[in-house]
Each structure stands twice: as structure tokens, then as C-alpha cells.
UniProtKB/TrEMBL annotation:
Assigned keywords, A-Z: Membrane, Transmembrane, Transmembrane helix
Organism domain of life: Eukaryota
Region listing for Disordered, in residue ranges: 1-41
Biased composition, class Low complexity, residue ranges: 19-36
Record's protein name: Uncharacterized protein
Bilayer-crossing regions: 92-111
Organism: Sphenostylis stenocarpa
Pfam family of the protein (one): PLAC8
Length: 186
């Protein structure tokens, strides 16, 4: 196979990009074109929980359910906090399994309290989350359940049910809303 003679001043072709240094530099004295990066987003303000830890008895139905079957309450909370990526049944079953094997399901549920706090900007920290769940698991679950209800979630229909209900509400509002602007001549 014939190959033409190569120029000895050029490097051989290897398929890799080669950079050549040049002595040309460009400068500008125009200060009006300086770039200022946008300001970082402001963090969410930390707010108080909508109900207290010991307000369990204000909602006796949820209090009794949590006392006798905390796995159901936890499963409902986990489904909403996970935004539907885990189901109520799966989370509740895992909670029960951890409880049966280790007798410390509070170690699992405290992580969901932390996740919920971060999502909604609620007051607290990881240490208090673990202490609250270890010392008073039923009260902690009831408080989280009430918080999500107070934020507009129907805990009995799960994440997907809430999304469907809200999207149906938006669609109904759009269908029944009067036109924004009407022609004056008609």
C-alpha cells in the first residue's frame, strides 16, 4: 500500500486531537460585558409542626389505629413521603418484619420522619427524630400522619389517589372557569 511522504514539521496523524500553542492573545477593556452568576436559591424557612407530639388524642381514630396496627399508619406515611415509589403495603410489611426480627422498627421509621422534615421544611434534626421515635413511636407516627393530613393529603387513598384527585380537581376547575376575556361586540 502506497503512503505519501509526510511533512517532517507536522506530527504524525494519530487520531487524537493535537493542540498547537499560538502567541495570539485577546483582551478587552469593555467592563459592561462582565458575567455575574445568578444568586443561589434561598433555603426554605424552617417551620413548626402543625400539631404537637402529644396531640394524639385529638384524632382518636388514627390514635387507635396507630396503637394497634402501627404498620398501617407507617405504610400510609411512607407512601406519601416516598411520593408513590413505595406502596403502603410494602412499607407496612417491611416495618412489621423489622419489628418482628429486631423489635426496633423505630430505627426504620425515624428515617422517614427525617425525610418528611426535609421535604416540608419542618423543625427538628436527625438526633431528635431518632429520640422521638425510640421513646414514643405511636405519638411520632400520629404526628406525622396529622401533618400530612393538614397539608391536604387524604391518607387513605395513597399518593397516586391524591395525585389523581388533585389533577381531576384542576381539570374540573379549568372546565368550569369563565373565559378570561370576552369580545365586547358579541
Amino acid at each position: 500500500m502506497y503512503q505519501p511522504a509526510s511533512d517532517p514539521t507536522k506530527p504524525p496523524a494519530t487520531g487524537f486531537p493535537v493542540s498547537y500553542s499560538t502567541s495570539t492573545t485577546f483582551t478587552t477593556n469593555d467592563t459592561s460585558s462582565s458575567y455575574t452568576p445568578p444568586a443561589p436559591p434561598q433555603p426554605k424557612p424552617i417551620i413548626e409542626w402543625s400539631t404537637g407530639l402529644c396531640d394524639c388524642f385529638s384524632d382518636s381514630g388514627n390514635c387507635c389505629l396507630t396503637w394497634w396496627c402501627p404498620c398501617i399508619t407507617f405504610g400510609r406515611i411512607a407512601e406519601i413521603v416516598d411520593r408513590g415509589s413505595s406502596s403502603c403495603g410494602t412499607s407496612g410489611a417491611l416495618y412489621t418484619l423489622i419489628c418482628c426480627v429486631t423489635c426496633c422498627s423505630c430505627l426504620y421509621s425515624c428515617f422517614y420522619r427525617s425525610k418528611m422534615r426535609r421535604q416540608h421544611g419542618l423543625k427538628g434534626n436527625g438526633c431528635t427524630d431518632c429520640l422521638i421515635h425510640c421513646c414514643c413511636e405511636p405519638c411520632a407516627l400520629c404526628q406525622e400522619y396529622r401533618e400530612l393530613e393538614n397539608r391536604g393529603f387524604d391518607m387513605t387513598i395513597g399518593w397516586h389517589g391524591n395525585v389523581e384527585q388533585r389533577s381531576r380537581g384542576v381539570a374540573m376547575t379549568a372546565l368550569t372557569a369563565p373565559p378570561a376575556e370576552q369580545d365586547m361586540n358579541s
